[in-house]
Amino acid sequence: MSEHFSVERGLFDDVMVPNYAPAAVIPVRGQGSRVWDQQDKEYIDFAGGIAVSALGHCHPALVGALKEQGEKLWHLSNVLTNEPALRLAKKLVDNTFAEKVYFCNSGAEANEAALKLARRWALEVHGEEKSQIIAFKQGFHGRTFFTVTVGGQTAYSDGFGPKPGNIDHAEYNNLDSFKALISDKTCAVMIEPLQGEGGIISPTTEFIQGVSDLCKQHNALLIFDEVQTGVGRLGELYGYMDLNVTPDILTTAKGLGGGFPIGAMLTTTVIAEHLKVGTHGSTYGGNPLACAVAEAVLDTVNTPDILAGVKAKANLYVASLKAINTKYDVFSEIRGKGLLIGAVLNDKYQGQAKAFLNAAMEEGVMVLVAGASVIRFAPSLIIPDEDIALGLARFEKAVASLA
């Protein structure tokens, strides 16, 4: 038997590296869109573990898949494949532009694989001159040294010594800024089909179409980072499906496992062949447990009912947030798409998003921030309408306490 001892918030400061500053509250169980802490206080979950818990907490289909696979097979080496991985890959291929799939454990790893593949493709097909990677300011692509350098936030990438080279950043939604950087030496462009961490910013049609056209013109690979926007979050299975633009490589994670760590990189056969045996790998990537859970997530989310429900629930959020704002005048804009919504604080409340998050927590509702002045909502895709109403009533109390 393992030894049990009292677990309190103070223990974090004793035993954990100080790169996080978690709340005083320690959640101990969740069901659907509700979570309870050690004191049995209930919270409505509008954060979804940062757009991860796409089907809420302890969804029966996911619990069932985990238990069933947990009795069969947990892990194998890459020398062998397994049934859940092959089934999941087939379903991803059948439901997207992609023809080939690579599995890993996180969004950062999926993006790392995408960037390494793009560089390898450019080197082998076009030669070493073609190595520039273009991404966007305020973008976010993960925390490995390569992905954090490609991400457009120096606060996350500075202070660790020399960075991977030949990476440039354009302004999101500014086609001229992008046009000034791209050339025949560009090997890849990495972009979010809606900027998440950067403030919940949707691309204009002209911009995203222009980026795609210029990539084709200069023979550069278009990489869509759909770690946050994928798996139904925006109301389509993947965000690109609504933009009339198809990427060459797509990365997915977060919601894909519904809370179990998994990531995937999707691409075409022609591009994929450059990651031949031995060029890239992951010990845990494609393990049977993760793939069995992800398959259950995909089967559940990828239905017309659930995807239409995302759009309907989004309308409910936006209408209610606007009603709250009519009373208290704290937001300049409610933006986003599907169930990735940003409430942008107006000039009077600049930089105070964290204060709103803390006040919401006090009232029993969990929200997120996206930068210092945007409150982010990324709830379960199947959150019941009554939980939305109750959570927003609690959120309104938090707003009232600060306004």
From TrEMBL:
N(2)-acetyl-L-ornithine binds at R143, S282. SUPFAM superfamilies: PLP-dependent transferases (SSF53383). Pyridoxal 5'-phosphate binds at G107, A108, F140, D225, E226, V227, Q228, T283. It is found in: Cytoplasm. The modification N6-(pyridoxal phosphate)lysine is found at K254. Its EC number is 2.6.1.11. The keyword Transferase applies. Pfam families: Aminotran_3. Binds 1 pyridoxal phosphate per subunit. Its main location: cytoplasm. Its cofactor is pyridoxal 5'-phosphate. It catalyses: N(2)-acetyl-L-ornithine + 2-oxoglutarate = N-acetyl-L-glutamate 5-semialdehyde + L-glutamate. InterPro entries: Ac/SucOrn_transaminase_bac (IPR017652), AcOrn/SuccOrn_fam (IPR004636), Aminotrans_3 (IPR005814), Aminotrans_3_PPA_site (IPR049704), Class-III_PLP-dep_AT (IPR050103), PyrdxlP-dep_Trfase (IPR015424), PyrdxlP-dep_Trfase_major (IPR015421), PyrdxlP-dep_Trfase_small (IPR015422). CDD domains: OAT_like. GO terms for molecular function: identical protein binding; N2-acetyl-L-ornithine:2-oxoglutarate 5-aminotransferase activity; pyridoxal phosphate binding. One of its GO terms (cellular component) is cytoplasm. Keywords: Amino-acid biosynthesis, Aminotransferase, Arginine biosynthesis, Cytoplasm, Pyridoxal phosphate, Transferase. Pathway: Amino-acid biosynthesis; L-arginine biosynthesis; N(2)-acetyl-L-ornithine from L-glutamate: step 4/4. GO terms for biological process: L-arginine biosynthetic process. Belongs to the class-III pyridoxal-phosphate-dependent aminotransferase family. ArgD subfamily. May also have succinyldiaminopimelate aminotransferase activity, thus carrying out the corresponding step in lysine biosynthesis. Homodimer. This is Acetylornithine aminotransferase.
